[in-house]
């Protein structure tokens, strides 16, 4: 009887180690699912912000229809001016804390609208929010007149694009995501 008990020593330890390996794979799988869920949540959140910003410029263009007719919005690309968000537009057509809005012409209002959506509101630390502050680095706002030359009945394509999927530790190329809207102001 003692020889049978002696042969079974260590079997319980092997069973525990196998169970530990199985549980470890389960925990790693759950962690992977959590990371994937967080990635998709961030992607959806960026898309929602881009849609809000696209609707913002569309609303501003509908309000300033004279500026649209003058072609003040056509051909705008926020990525072409590296200093766009570093300089406060003058006049500043929006009221802020304790400061009244300045009177703006149709052209100045269009310039201010493009600045506001691309860069955000001007504050003590410069421009905040907007396309360049709310979306990942490399995001841009484009306003393109669909006709050449642009006419009264022309439509515009408004787009906000941003890179997605690239991280500091990833060598993978980022995928360019875009929200577009066609507008006839």
Automatic annotation (TrEMBL):
Keyword tags: Membrane, Transmembrane, Transmembrane helix
Domain of life, per lineage: Bacteria
NCBIfam families the record matches: type_IV_pilV
Annotated organism of origin: Granulosicoccus antarcticus IMCC3135
Protein name per the record: Type IV pilin Tt1218-like domain-containing protein
Transmembrane segments: 12-33
All copies of domain Type IV pilin Tt1218-like, residue ranges: 33-114
């Amino acid at each position: 009887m003692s020889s049978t008990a002696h042969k079974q020593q260590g079997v319980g330890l092997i069973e525990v180690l196998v169970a530990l390996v199985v549980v470890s794979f389960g925990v790693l799988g759950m962690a992977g699912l959590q990371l994937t869920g967080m990635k998709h949540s961030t992607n959806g959140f960026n898309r929602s912000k881009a849609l809000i910003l696209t609707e913002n410029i569309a609303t501003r263009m509908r309000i300033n229809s004279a500026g649209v007719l003058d072609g003040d919005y056509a051909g705008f690309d926020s990525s072409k001016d590296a200093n766009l968000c570093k300089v406060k537009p003058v006049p500043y057509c929006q009221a802020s804390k304790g400061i009244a809005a300045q009177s703006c012409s149709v052209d100045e209002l269009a310039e201010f609208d493009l600045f506001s959506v691309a860069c955000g509101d001007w504050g003590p630390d410069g421009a905040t929010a907007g396309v360049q502050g709310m979306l990942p680095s490399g995001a841009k706002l484009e306003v393109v007149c669909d006709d050449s030359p642009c006419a009264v009945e022309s439509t515009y394509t408004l787009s906000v694009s941003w890179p997605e999927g690239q991280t500091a530790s990833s060598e993978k190329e980022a995928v360019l995501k875009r929200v577009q809207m066609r507008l006839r102001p």
